[in-house]
Amino acid sequence: MSRIDDNRGVAEVVVVGAGVGGLATAARLAAGGHRVTVCERADEVGGKLGLLTRDGFRFDTGPSLVTMPQVFADFFRETGDPLESVLDLEPLDPIAHYRFGDGTELKSCADPFEFRRRIDDAFGGGAGRDWAAFWARAERIWDATYEPFLASTLDGPRTLARYATRLRDLGTIAPGRSLRGLARAYLRDPRLRQFVERYATYTGSDPRRAPAALASVPFAELKYGGWYLRGGLRTLADALLDRCTEHKVTVRTGTEVTRITANGAGVTGVELADGSFLPADVVVANADAAHVYSDLIRVPSAARRLRRTTPSLSGVVLLLGVRGRTPGLAHHTVLFPPGELPGSYDAEFDHVFGDPGRPVPDPTLYLSVPDDPGVAPDGHEAWFVLVNAARQGVGTGAVDWRTPGLAERYADLLVRRLAERGHDLSDRIRFREIRTPADLEAQTHAVGGAIYGTSSNGASAAFLRPGNRSPVPGLFLVGGSSHPGGGLPLVTLSAQTVAGLIGPA
Q1: What does DSSP assign to residue 427?
Q2: What pLDDT is attached to residue 147?
Q3: Could you tell me the residue ranges of all domains in the chain?
Q4: Rounded CA gap, 444 and 298, in Å?
Q5: Which of 133, 281, 384, 464 could hold 3 in an S-S bridge, CB 3.0 to 4.6 Å?
Q6: pLDDT mean for each 10 residues of the chain (505 residues)
Q7: Beta carbons within 10 angstroms of residue 378's beta carbon
Q8: H or E stretch including 191?
Q9: How many CB atoms lie under 10 A from the CB of residue 186?
Q10: For residues 182 and 133, what is the distance between their CA atoms, to the nearest angstrom?
Q11: Taking each helix axis from N to C terminus, what angle separates 234-246 and 20-31, rounded to the nearest 10 degrees?
Q12: 317: helix, coil or strand?
């Protein structure tokens, strides 16, 4: 039994990784009286919530949207000064501006009645009524899954077995149906189905295989709204670091953990790349679960289970310093590829998850262009362009993005696709930076650059991510590759769960 499991008071805690999950866990544990050290291999904190600065531009290289702000409000209130005193959170309307393959446009928003009106105006044919029925089902799915599957610890298949006795809720989440199947059951317009299917990518998944329960993802975004942090989302990482500092957490950047050590009773500490050793009663790994169980501490059974899962998709990102201003450009724009509907979305997922994976020749383009003078020089815009991509590697669902010239050629293609869809930047681009899945893997130890660790492809995959409590006493996992999954609010919820499992001093 580890010291912490034996309830012996203040613990020496080492957090491996200073991403959002690691920093939030560290602050909660330190506020609870534990002595906490965070070790981060990079020179800055933030993990996938990265930042690139160049020539007066500031680019968020990871998430560009905050959803479920109540999760962050809970964290800041429970650890010190409230959210509104430390971050400048602004609601977005539209949350995103969608342009479909036939040129139809839709602007999403958090007002359900207004959004239904916009759907009717865009699509007609009773699409708003169809959406209302789908929305009601998505709300029931949210109510059925939030507490047991998002806000609580998950004990593998046994949790699902217990849940299966609640037949009414089981029928609501329809475990045998895919997100695509659920959308088709309610929505007649193929464009509206494509809108719903996009949310599977929020978990790095294929909507044709992801469970119907992921209808909770669009529900959460549209129920609680999309938000931007003035100055960029990187300010969240800065605020988390400040909260750690307030609670006397020791944060060591440029410090790589190469091994988590344990004996028969549980974890004993971590070994660092410089050969030194940090003793610990508790280790919290804010790192990709596959890397933890295969490289940092060998847990063969856990590593085997992860190898049997489908890794999540990754992404290719262009960061563009752009001259001039673009009239009418929303904070977020989604440009679906041209083509006949339904089915035009299938080619994208066939390339990303295919055998072998391939770069998508005509992908959906996700643009984030903040209207924020703090992220670009006067008269300029900072463009973040994201496309879904197969992870780094070889074989099924993978591409070797290190192939000489591939990244540059693909970036050229994406700039051409932008022009074809109404945003010709050929004379406006001051510079561009390219980020591939290979870059993400190198920077964060995310295996293959898979953004969310494992995908939710499969009936139960979304509910069977690696648990927050590991098989090794005293070792806990936090972050997007562990329960409850990826995305800023879920990662922050995982920190709350881990801190609850460890408990106060």
Answers
A1: T
A2: 78
A3: 12-49+230-309+457-502, 127-225
A4: 20
A5: 281
A6: 56 97 98 98 94 96 94 98 96 97 96 97 97 97 83 62 56 83 96 96 93 93 97 96 98 98 97 98 96 94 84 96 96 90 78 96 97 96 98 96 98 98 96 97 90 79 78 96 90 96 96
A7: 7
A8: helix 190-197
A9: 19
A10: 11
A11: 20
A12: strand
Contacts of 360 (CB under 8 A, 6+ apart): 347, 348, 351, 352, 387, 388, 389
CA-CA distance, 70 to 81, in Å (whole number)? 15
- Cα–Cα separations (whole angstroms), residue 416 to 75, 247, 276, 345, 369: 43, 49, 50, 19, 18
Interatomic CA distance for residues 235 and 50, integer angstroms: 10
The tokens for 216 are 């909770």
In this structure, the chain runs to a length of: 505
Conformational region of residue 403, where left means phi above 0, alpha means psi within -120 to 50, and beta covers everything else: beta
Q: In the chain, what is the straight-line distance between the N-terminal and C-terminal CA atoms, in Å? A: 17
Contacts 24+ apart (CB under 8 A), 272-277: 272/39, 273/41
Q: Which two tokens stand for residue 398?
A: 């993978």
Q: Which residues contact 22 (CB under 8 A, 6 or more apart)?
A: 15, 16, 38, 40, 47, 284, 286, 478, 479, 495
Q: What is the pTM of this model?
A: 0.93
Identity of residue 418: L
Sign of the four-CA dihedral 119, 208, 217, 437: negative
C-alpha 88/C-alpha 59 separation (Å) is 17
CA–CA separation, 435 and 367 (whole Å): 15
410: CB partners within 8 A, 6+ apart: 316, 359
DSSP assignment of 80-124 equals: SS-GGGT--EEE-SSS-EEE-TTS-EEE--S-HHHHHHHHHHHH-
Separation CA 333–CA 168 (nearest Å): 38
In whole angstroms, what is the distance from residue 479 CA to residue 289 CA? Answer: 9
